[in-house]
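Researcher: I need the complex structure. Ligand is zinc ion. Inputs:
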Amino acid sequence: MRVLHSLIQTGQFFHQKGWVPATGGNFSAKLADNRLLITASGWHKGELDETAFLECDFHGHVLTQGKPSYETGLHTALYRWQPALGAVLHTHSVANTVLSRRLEAIVLKGYELLKILPHIRTHDVEVVIPIFENDQDIARLAATVDAYLRQHDNPAYVIRGHGLYAWGDSVAQCRHRVEALEFLFECHLHEVAA
Ligand SMILES: [Zn+2]
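Model: Output:
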C-alpha cells in the first residue's frame, strides 16, 4: 500500500529530525471509502512497520485490529471538518514545544518558506498558527479546535507544551508543510530567544 509506506518513510524522516521523540507523534492518511489509516498506540515513529497501523472511520470507530492512539479524535475531527484531506501529521519538536510554552500564538511574518503553505504567494504576509491549551480530554480539545477552524482558514495548529498538527491533500504535501513549519518554528525560536 503506497500510503502506508509513505507514512513509514515519514516516521523515519521525522525521527531523524528529532520531531517525534520516544513514542510521540501520530500520523494518518485517507484510504478509499473514507477509511483512515492511522498509527496505532505506543509505536516509536522511527520504527514503524506494516503492523503499526490500524484503520478507522471519520468518527474513530476501529475497523481493523489494533489499539488506537489516544489522539485519534484530533485526527478524525480534521477529516470531518475537511473530508477532502489526504493526510494529517502530528509532531513533538523542541521548537514547537518551547514556542507554545512562551507565546499566545506563533506569528510567522516575512519568511520565504511561508509560500509552501496553502494560498500564500509572497513572503510579505503574516501567518498566525494558533496555540490551544493542552487537554487530556481529547473530545473537548477536538471540539475547541474544530470551532476555531470553522472561523479561520488555518494551515496548522499547535497544542501548548505538546506539539504541531498539520494537514494536506496527500502525505507528501503534508510532510512538506510540516518540514516548512518546523523550519520556521526553529527560526522563530532563535528570534524569540535572541
Ligand atoms: Zn501528541
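Model: Summary of the prediction. Residues 2 and 173 are 15 Å apart (CA to CA).
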